[in-house]
Amino acid sequence: xxxxFASLVVAWxxxxxxxxxxxxxxxxxxxxxxxxxxxxxxxVSADPPTMPPSQTATWTMSPSPSATRTLTPAPSATATPxxxxxxxxxxxxxxxxxxxxAGPTKRLFAELMETYIAVPLTVTLNIxxxxxxxxLSCESxxxxxxxxxxxxxxxxxxxxWEWYFIxxxxxxxxxxxxxxxKIDGTMSLSCRDxxxxxxxxxxxxxxxxxxxxxxxxEYGVDYRRIAKEVxxxxxxxxxxxxxxxEPVREVDxxxxxxxxxxxxxxxWLVVGVSAxxxxxxxxxxxxxxQYWVKRFPRWEVFRGMSVIVGG
Length: 311
Prior knowledge:
Elements: H1 2-40, H2 103-118, E1 123-124, H3 138-150, H4 161-168, E2 180-181, E3 186-187, E4 195-198, H5 201-210, E5 215-218, H6 223-231, E6 236-241, E7 248-251, E8 258-261, E9 265-273, E10 280-284, E11 289-293, E12 306-309
Parallel strand pairs: 3-4
Antiparallel strand pairs: 1-9, 2-4, 5-12, 6-9, 6-12, 7-8, 9-10, 10-11
């Protein structure tokens, strides 16, 4: 009898232990299943199934329907009476301000523009050289080149601009009033034939203005002024000489004005200027040449006498 009772106690103890172990294992498996279900989207009940202590828990996983995302609109804000609703401050809109209105970029651009403006380019007017037709008609030849630049066709009754000036300019011993001496003679300070000399600025400018080509006589002109006029598109006639003789002064008996004579009196037509304003492109009627020069020889003897054409 005692033996049977002891066997029952042992059996009951084993069952209790197995049941405790089974319940502990169930809790572990439940926790694991919860973790796996959360990660895989499988719903898991909060409590494990209740099983008899003597049975071994057997889990059967059935696939659950795929999760469906439901968007729940957020409730609209409801203003509480007596409470001031929050004000809405719009984001600032672009002003459309140009990039170069301020700051370092504008200063850099301004400096570059100043540099560009401060460095002028070489300018040459499209005026080809022309050789004078007569021995002392250099002034008429220079005037012809300048006139053709503005009016290619000579006045009515003339086939060539040079001969318009030769025929239009009067003869006079005072070169400020006309051609002194014989225009196809030899260079001399005498006013008698067969000797000749030339003419000065006033008769040339008058003949140009007569046909509608603006021309101004100026004295005391310097190189900077010549460069400025050429850059404006105005060719300039200047009086020069390649000789070093002393000038001779005479007085016009009619006007009692003094004028100067210089052997080798000649003219150039200035048609270009270098970038640094130190060299000038001239058309030389003597031979119809064109070349660059640094200065106008003996120009000062004629007091910087010039005819600015087109200005």
